[in-house]
Amino acid sequence: MLKDLVLKCRSYRRFYEDYNVDCETLKELVDLARLSSSAGNKQPLRYILSCTEEKNAKIFDNVAWAAYLTDWPGPSEGERPSAYIVMLADKDVPSLHYNWDAGIASEAIMLGAVEIGLGGCIIASVKKPELAKVLNIPEKYEIVFVLAIGKPKEEIVLEKIPENRDIKYWRDDKHVHHVPKRSLEEIILDL
Questions:
Q1: Helices and strands (H and E) in the chain: how many
Q2: Average confidence (pLDDT) over 75-99
Q3: Which of 84, 102, 114, 188 is most exposed, with the fewest beta carbons within 10 Å of its own?
Q4: Under the phi-then-psi rule, with left for phi > 0, alpha for psi from -120 to 50, and beta for the rest, what region is 145?
């Protein structure tokens, strides 16, 4: 059921790094994005796949993890993603709405990952000029997101928004990741 996939589709930030995610699996995930809706059917997105230690290290060095966890520098060695998908917008494809496509495509990829027992994190905190340089990305492409993919190594629990209305996620002393979510009643307006 789709709701079950959505409930499992969290922003995982720690992985079993030794679990191999091959490029063929990444291609299958990108194919889900390719088949998804595109504003005006412009299809402006392109992808770089990474499933080698060398390329993964270059990407890892140019992304930031979990802004709300200010004392956590990101996954330690052994808990890093085993693969990445770098999502690009092709500037030669006239599209005012590539960010809409990026959201749709990212969710399709992440739901596909969950369906096959993987998980990931959509990362927008990217050192774009540095990453473009180390990956030799031509100027005609703009980095949109980096999607970290791997076998999740953490538990994520959805919580009700507390009385203080704080929406920041947090980790407890057992490293369980807690994510406050607004109630359905709060987000549906009765106007």
A1: 6, 7
A2: 93
A3: 188
A4: beta
Distance CA 150, CA 80 (A): 8
The helix-helix angle for 98-115 and 23-35 (nearest 10°) equals: 130
pLDDT in tens, 1-58: 899 999 999 999 999 999 999 999 999 999 999 999 999 899 999 999 999 999 999 9
d(Cα 13, Cα 105) in Å, to the nearest integer?
A: 20
pLDDT score at 95: 76
Question: Which residue has tokens 């956590």?
Answer: 72
Q: At CA 117, angle to CA 116 and CA 122, rounded to 5?
A: 90
Tell if the pTM clears 0.70, that is, is over it. yes
Strand runs (DSSP E) across 136-175, as ranges? 141-150, 156-160, 170-171
Element (H, E) at 134: helix 128-134
